[in-house]
Amino acid sequence: MDVSSPTDLRLGTRFADELPELAVRWQAEEAPEPQLVVLNEPLAAELGLDPRWLRSEAGVRLLVGAEVPDGATPVAQGYAGHQFGGYSPRLGDGRALLLGELTDPAGRVRDLHLKGSGRTPWARGGDGLAGLGPMLREHVVSEAMHTLGIPTTRSLAVVATGRGVRREQVLPGAVLARVASSHLRVGSFQYARATGDDDLLRRLADHAIARHHPAARDAGPAGAAYVALLEGVVEAQARLVAQWMLVGFVHGVMNTDNMTISGESIDYGPCAFLDAYDPATVFSSIDEGGRYAYRNQPAAAQWNLARLAEALLPLIDADEERAVETATRSLQGFATTYADAFTADAAAKLGLPAGLDRAVVASLVEDLLALMAAARVDHTSFFRALGDAARGDVEGVRGVVLDLPGLDAWLERWRGLGPDAEAMDRVNPVYIPRNHLVEQALDAATAGDLAPLHRLLEAVTAPYDERPGLAAYAEPGPAGAGPYVTFCGT
Ligand SMILES: Nc1ncnc2c1ncn2[C@@H]1O[C@H](COP(=O)(O)OP(=O)(O)OP(=O)(O)O)[C@@H](O)[C@H]1O
Ligand SMILES: [Mg+2]
């Protein structure tokens, strides 16, 4: 049955109850004039929430935090984090609240969370607010990621608050209602570890195991369950980052507080998708050293996971030296899982049959990426054009690569392996949220015109289905433009 009133909605308080040291009870700031800007109806249905109710005044009050269902305990979650390599011991939800855990009709437990809901005790100097544009970016990009089959937090809705947010200019403010399999971060473990309270650390790890890696519980005695937890996170993150790389996604701010334990992508701040394939691409204007450049993402993930391993050491083994040895072995799993996932996903993008020798596929992929990088081809449309090449039409790919003899030799090797063009069309998107289109849609929405946003959503939520009316959405942006995303506007 659909939930159609606040009294029907049951939100769990498991995080608040089990981890009170990480949960500050709090409430959202009043929104002067809440107005629903976008609602994710398919997600609402998946959660058992009646979209008509969510669109009603009472529903919007829930989505903006003005009304809390009976029995719910909204909390601001505590976490620490390494930001661009520097450690901040006390970050936490400075502008966000966990409303509680919702069990969907399929029995899955999901966090319902608000971002931009006002200052909390973790706010430090911040105003606790979020701009409409950045929250809509999170909506668009997370929905695109979801339809591309990439694990991600989701956006249920964006509600404009009617309050101005002072940035470089005054922007309309908004609250994002976010749904995630949890909001546990690497930084949550760093925070618990830094308290020196091993009981808290153990409760947090047990909570994470129960929610995300239940098989770890059966791993064996003593520290084995926590080693299995670490390995579970390492594996989930290795697979996730392999998917980012193959779709050309640059997260932009892979701090340890922006890396989940679930393996879902989180926090779409200064993120963007590659147009030209250049592995050195950096989008965030504050990432001056290029720490989170596209090509550095696997290494950044490994670095973050090493911070998770450090936090878990007291649970892994009472003997620190043995704990370090064990954790190091677990971290080494990243390289293998990443390489396997990357090769398997790349083989699918190339339409290759299953069962080919891994080394053959890996060298084929490597050689193709080198050809693509040398000519800075458009990442997304090139892979799509390869589907045409599998059907015998090589004009699209030959038209953009510089080293034609090299490409022809590569095409011959590849075609000899029998690529399946239809299978390629099912995994190589036509539409991704191109940066220039995202910017246009957000600018228009900020000025009150939602049509470009809806058109963009129409394109990116059916990314493999080429439609003639959406040709402009498949085109790369103007060369040399950007970086489009900065931190200042969030
Ligand atoms: N305007 C703000 N007011 C208060 N705190 C803020 C503000 N902006 C960011 N923060 C806090 O700064 C830290 C880093 O911010 P970051 O942009 O990574 O996270 P976020 O986008 O707010 O949230 P999330 O990671 O949940 O998506 C977080 O602790 C966040 O709560
Ligand atoms: Mg963040």
From TrEMBL:
The active site is at D257. It catalyses: L-tyrosyl-[protein] + ATP = O-(5'-adenylyl)-L-tyrosyl-[protein] + diphosphate; L-histidyl-[protein] + UTP = N(tele)-(5'-uridylyl)-L-histidyl-[protein] + diphosphate; L-threonyl-[protein] + ATP = 3-O-(5'-adenylyl)-L-threonyl-[protein] + diphosphate; L-tyrosyl-[protein] + UTP = O-(5'-uridylyl)-L-tyrosyl-[protein] + diphosphate. Keywords: ATP-binding, Magnesium, Manganese, Metal-binding, Nucleotide-binding, Nucleotidyltransferase, Transferase. Its EC number is 2.7.7.-, 2.7.7.108. GO terms for molecular function: AMPylase activity; ATP binding; magnesium ion binding; manganese ion binding. Mg(2+) binds at N258, D267. InterPro entries: SelO. Nucleotidyltransferase involved in the post-translational modification of proteins. It can catalyze the addition of adenosine monophosphate (AMP) or uridine monophosphate (UMP) to a protein, resulting in modifications known as AMPylation and UMPylation. Belongs to the SELO family. The gene is ydiU. This is Protein nucleotidyltransferase YdiU. It is an enzyme of class 2 (transferase). NCBIfam families: PRK00029.1. The lineage of its organism: Bacteria, Bacillati, Actinomycetota, Actinomycetes, Propionibacteriales. Signal peptide: none annotated. ATP binds at G92, G94, R95, K115, D127, G128, R178, R185, D267. Its cofactor is Mg(2+); Mn(2+).
